[in-house]
Amino acid sequence: MIQNLFKSRVALLYIMSISMVFSFSAWMSLLNNYVIEVASFNGSQIGILQSLREIPGFLAFTVVIAIMFIAQQRLAYLSIIALGLGVFLTGLYPSALGLYITTILMSIGFHYLETLNQSLALQWVDKQRAPIVLGKITAAKSFTSLVAFVIIYVMMKFYSVEYKYVYAFFGLTTLFVGIIAWIGFEHFKDDVVQEKKLVIKKEYWLFYTLTFFAGARRQIFVVFAGFLLVEKFGVNIENMVSLLFINAILNMYLAPKIGKFIARAGERITLRIEYIGLILVFVSYAFVNNVYIAFFLYVVDHLLFSMAIALKTYFQKIADPKDIASASAVSFTINHIAAVFLPFGLGLLWLYSYSLVFIIGVCIAFCSLGLSLLVPKNPERGFETTLKVKI
Predict the structure, then answer these.
(1) Per-residue pLDDT averaged across 232-241, rounded?
(2) What is the DSSP string of 209-236?
(3) Is 266 exposed, middle or buried (CB count within 10 Å of its CB: 0-12, 13-18, 19+)?
(4) pLDDT tens across 152-180, in order?
(5) Which of 148, 178, 152, 177 lies closest to 163, judged by CA?
């Protein structure tokens, strides 16, 4: 049974996703409290850190250069190891410079792994099964986050473990998983030989644009939603972990159902539901004064991330199979264009008014909703948008 596991492509997708989420969940869930309680960060410094974190995402197109010299699968293993090492070192350097450096290392591993994970998933799973498989993988990631949050809660609530030891545990676990996967899994050959150059095609413009806005929206949630809870409402680390625990349980249950919904209803309807939900959430964030309402918004916002599967499967349907690796790398770069400057700029705006930060999120969601109207009911190569006439 173990031998069959190491021969399964889908099993490897699960391993890569789980190892990534295990350490990154710990890094992210501890971050706001860690930088405030230990490193004494302010809004501007957290904005700088998050901007630095996204630079490797912006440079994700370099994956295309890397796969000229090393296979995607082996590069994924190296990425897992880099991610684990970065998380491990985070707790050892609680200064601004130390956190900036370890964040960049962690982020290189994370963003390369995320890019390769998407690329390999869209290559290895057929179009009909992709939404369902990706939904199940999302559920597995949520379960992994759940386990991580339980471990963090027990370590910090009952044993008062220091931040540096918590980071060390999660980082080293991911690092060792990367090594074991490298040794254990067989090397899978590509069904379709991938382009070894950057692919930017005009046919994919709608996907690229929606990806850009998705990246901008994600930054507002990742950087400032949790920071709002800690700074404005004084939420402690145990309550933050409990909130993430709830998110993980809900995602674990709902993500497979969302995958099935996408397979049944299609990407067009799913994306519209996601963007309408985002508009309502960001408007509420801008004016929230009740911590329990803020908790509710945080949970809903997190659930909307699961619907991002629809954007991936939309691309899978319109893409030339040989473009997937290169175009995935390009899309990750596009996704992170806003991430390089937005956290820093909004971090400065935060010092003046946190409400304006979320109003900008509303504008981004409106733009995404408008563009989603151009997604066809049944997208395919040659019929990427409703602006084209299907032949």
Answers:
(1) 78
(2) HHHHHHHHHHHIIIIIIHHHHHHHH---
(3) buried
(4) 889 988 888 999 999 999 999 999 999 99
(5) 152
pTM of the complete model? 0.81
| In the predicted structure, residue 250 carries a pLDDT above the cut 90 | no
Residue with tokens 């997190």: 302
CB atoms within 10 A of CB 64: 22
Could you report the per-residue pLDDT of 260-305, keeping only the tens digit for each?
A: 999 899 999 999 999 999 999 999 998 888 888 988 988 888 888 8
Encoded tokens for 103: 């964040």
Nearest to 43 by CA among 339, 295, 338, 353: 353
> CB–CB of 228/354 below 8 Å?
yes
Q: DSSP string spanning 41-91?
A: --HHHHHHHHHHHHHHHHTTTHHHHHTTTS-HHHHHHHHHHHHHHHHHHHT
Cα within 13 Å of Cα(222), Cβ side: 21
For 323-377, what is each residue's pLDDT tens digit? 888 888 888 888 878 766 777 788 788 888 888 989 999 999 999 999 999 999 8
Burial (CB < 10 A; 0-12, 13-18, 19+), residue 296, is: middle
Give me the chain's average pLDDT, please. 86
User: Is the torsion defined by CA of 95, 98, 101, 102 positive or negative?
Assistant: negative
> What does DSSP assign to residue 259?
H
Residue 380: strand, helix, or coil: strand
Contact criterion met (CB below 8 Å) for 141 and 18:
yes
Q: Which of 298, 147, 160 is nearest to 230 (CA)?
A: 298
Residues in CB range of 277: below 8 A, 6 or more apart: 300, 304
Strand-pair partners of 383? 380
SS3 state of residue 185: coil
Structure-block tokens of residue 121: 């998933």
Angle at 22 between CA 20 and CA 25, to 5 degrees: 95
